[in-house]
Design goal:
The complex is a heterodimer.
Chain A: H1 7-45, H2 49-54, H3 67-74, H4 86-116, H5 122-133, H6 137-151, H7 157-180, H8 186-194, H9 198-209, H10 211-227, H11 230-234, H12 243-253, H13 260-290
Chain B: E1 5-14, E2 17-27, E3 32-36, H1 43-51, E4 58-63, E5 66-67, E6 78-81, H2 93-103, H3 108-122, H4 137-149, E7 155-159, H5 167-184, E8 188-192, H6 195-201, E9 204-209, E10 212-217, H7 219-224, H8 229-234, E11 241-250, E12 253-258, E13 266-270, E14 279-284, E15 289-291, E16 300-306, E17 309-312, E18 316-323, E19 326-333, E20 343-349, E21 354-356
Parallel strand pairs in B: 3-8, 3-9, 6-7, 7-8
Antiparallel strand pairs in B: 1-2, 1-4, 4-5, 9-10, 11-12, 11-14, 12-13, 14-21, 15-20, 16-20, 17-18, 18-19
The chains are: A mainly alpha, B alpha+beta.
Bound molecules: adenosine-5'-diphosphate and magnesium ion.
Adenosine-5'-diphosphate (ADP) binds at residues 14, 19, 37, 39-45 of chain B.
Chain lengths: 296, 365
């Protein structure tokens, strides 16, 4: 081969640039299209009710006011109480953090067992867990309600944590199992010869390898649990409702004028934590999804 | 002194598939035992059974005079080097080497001492703070060795430790492995599919095929007196010439007649072997066929053959001729005058000849 630039190579690189720009433009249009609702929500939440009534949906706010945000956070009525989202937001945090941590840890252990300590029936158990991922929420509502009652945790936050952990294990196990099967079995063998046992190998060798898949699992579980409505509305009572249920109540129970700005602000507040998780850990998310085996 | 390793009537099945059949192996202290055989014959499985990483279906395993058949790997007093090296990816080289001691609760000063000793021995001191991903293949191999050496076990188990290295490095490491064995006087079971590695390293070779031991012996026994056609063909490069022949008995011994394409059969006289069956396969190593005049001895016999191919290989020249329907390779000196298509007088040295039964493949002499 020579280093001489081929005339054809030049034109093709030009057309490549053009194509590339075309691609960027199309992608930008898509991005705008997807960002439109967020834009409307954000601007509406910063307008006064007066301005919403008179102005256009997509216009920028004339006077920015945070009143709607204040109301949404601490004054909006969810039925008879008017404390805003704050108490429910706190409920959701109390619920989501333990549920995410517990389901991730159990998933990691399960995945480790299924992928690296193949025992008789391991595949069957794994298939059954996988099947658990595809059971629709509605199907488990009644049995779960009965079970929570029997356990004495109906209507409590620990009860909700339990439900989310159970429902999440299928997914978290799947994630970790698929990650751990790519790790050569000789690693476990070497550790066994070195004298390490089941938990020692998990703790010292497998967990340190797992950052990418832990991030994926945490994001997935957090999004699922934080955004869940059905379990939240079914298994909670007055003081233990998660933020999604409260949001629904705020939006649906306003009497008189519809306070769109408050609704929008409340919706954004309810969505903020998941957004935050994506922004902070998003790059690990992509990396974790595409992460293959670990080179020895 | 009790043998270091004594395997008796070992069987191993995965489900209904029998992988290892009636394995009996003994090694003495200081033995370098090489398990050799083609890929998939069960070498790694046997090594895993010795290590206790796979339960066995039948038989017993003694290590250091103690029955270890049902003992867990960590209590067998063994160390193992794996084919993929299996270094712990998130730990530094130093931590990889000391992990076993840490797990066993050896104190930190002792760990540091041992680590320094092994690092010096393997010349990996500059690498101690690196991660496995930052090492070359040869360096990883050394670290894996270090992890085994630091344990100071009764028995070392090596599973194809050199097979992931390039050819040049492999030869270097082979020599180093041999030096290490001589220095430590360690007892080693070493798995390879490479027969040259087996010949150069072993004090004792076990040849396996399809989960069955074909022959156990010193390298020279295996090379000079292969127990069957499989061993004869598998060990040695270029392979032993295995030529179908007919035996006629007469007063002076056996007349071995080998057919040739031109109808004129080649006849060799063997005075030593008198009770051969009528059909045999005669086995001659390439170095036992020389150019006439270059080999003297009582059992050397000459015959003129047609030369098909001449392959100069530096120190030697390999010459291929067709006998008994087989390509027969002779190892001649470098300055031979052999030309393809020409005739050459060969000297067949029957001192080390092997005979095999064509049906069973078993050795006859
Ligand atoms: N876990 C297993 N389950 C079923 N069959 C296995 C398993 N491990 C190995 N085998 C089979 O055992 C045979 C021997 O394998 P192995 O000991 O790895 O061969 P080698 O090391 O000699 O190349 C192969 O045919 C392989 O397919
Ligand atoms: Mg193998």
């Amino acid at each position: 081969m020579t280093d001489m630039p081929h005339p054809k190579a030049k034109t093709s690189s030009l057309s490549k640039t053009v194509l590339r720009w075309l691609l960027y433009i199309i992608l930008c249009l898509f991005a705008l299209y997807y960002l439109m609702p967020l834009f409307v929500m954000l601007t509406t939440s910063l307008k006064s009710l007066e301005e919403i009534r008179t102005g256009s949906l997509i216009s920028l706010p004339r006077d920015i006011t945070f009143d709607a945000w204040k109301t949404a956070w601490s004054g909006a009525c969810t039925g008879i109480q008017c404390e805003g989202l704050r108490p429910y937001f706190w409920n959701s945090i109390q619920l989501a953090i333990p549920a995410v941590l517990i389901s991730t840890l159990i998933g990691a252990l399960n995945g480790y067992v299924v992928a690296q300590w193949r025992f008789k029936g391991a595949n069957l158990i794994f298939s059954m867990m996988l099947f658990g991922c595809f059971i629709p929420f509605q199907v488990v509502l009644l049995p779960m309600a009965r079970m929570l009652g029997l356990m004495g945790v109906a209507g409590t936050i620990p009860g909700l944590i339990f439900v989310h952990v159970i429902y999440g294990i299928g997914f978290t196990t799947l994630f970790f199992r698929n990650y751990y099967v790519t790790i050569p079995h000789e690693l476990v063998k070497a550790a066994k010869v070195d004298g390490a046992g089941f938990f020692r190998i998990f703790w010292s060798i497998f967990l340190p390898l797992s950052l990418p898949i832990v991030v994926v699992t945490v994001i997935w579980q957090f999004t699922q649990i934080w955004n869940d409505f059905l379990f939240g509305v079914s298994f909670s009572q007055a003081g233990t409702q998660p933020v999604t249920v409260a949001l629904n109540n705020i939006v649906n129970s306003t009497t008189g004028v519809k306070e769109y700005n408050v609704d929008m602000a409340a919706a954004i507040i309810a969505a903020l934590p998941t957004l935050l998780v994506y922004v902070v850990a998003g790059k690990y998310f992509i990396r974790g999804l595409t992460a293959g085996s670990v080179k020895g | 002194m009790a043998p270091i390793l004594n395997i008796q009537n070992l069987y191993k099945s995965y489900g209904s598939v029998e992988i290892l059949k009636d394995i009996n192996v003994t090694i003495e202290p200081g033995d370098f035992l090489v398990l050799v055989g083609p890929s998939g014959c069960g070498k790694s499985t046997l090594l895993n059974c010795i290590a206790g990483l796979e339960p066995i279906t039948g038989g017993s395993i003694d290590i250091g005079g103690q029955d270890m058949t049902h003992v867990s790997p960590k209590d067998r007093n063994i160390a193992m080097v794996f084919q993929s090296y299996a270094l712990y990816p998130t730990m530094s080289v130093a931590k990889n080497i000391t992990f076993g001691m840490k797990v066993r609760g050896v104190n930190a000063t002792m760990q540091a001492e041992k680590l320094a000793e092994v690092a010096k021995q393997l010349q990996i001191e500059p690498l101690l703070q690196r991660r496995p991903a930052q090492l070359s293949g040869g360096q990883r191999q050394r670290v894996a060795m270090g992890r085994a050496l630091v344990r100071d076990p009764k028995l070392f188990l090596f599973d194809e430790p050199l097979s992931n290295l390039d050819a040049k490095l492999r030869v270097e490491m082979r020599t180093e492995m041999k030096k290490l064995h001589q220095k430590l006087n360690a007892s080693i079971v070493y798995v390879t599919h490479d027969q040259i590695e087996a010949m150069t390293l072993a004090t004792k070779i076990v040849v396996m095929k399809g989960g069955v031991i074909q022959q156990i012996g010193t390298p020279s026994e295996i090379y000079n007196k292969p127990a069957n056609l499989f061993v004869a063909d598998f060990m040695g490069s270029p392979a032993m010439n295995l030529i179908p022949a007919r035996v006629h008995k007469d007063a002076s011994g056996s007349r071995i007649e080998i057919e040739r394409e031109d109808g004129q059969s080649l006849v060799l006289n063997d005075a030593h072997h008198t009770n051969l069956p009528e059909d045999v396969i005669i086995g001659l190593r390439p170095e036992d066929i020389a150019e006439a005049g270059y080999r003297q001895g009582d059992d050397v016999q000459s015959a003129v053959c047609l030369v098909d191919v001449v392959e100069p290989a530096g120190a030697d020249t390999y010459v291929v001729s067709k006998l008994g329907g087989k390509e027969v390779t002779a190892r001649l000196h470098a300055e031979t005058n052999a030309t393809p298509g020409g005739n050459l007088t060969f000297a067949f040295d029957l001192a080390k000849v092997s005979y095999f039964a064509p049906k069973t493949g078993e050795r006859l002499n």
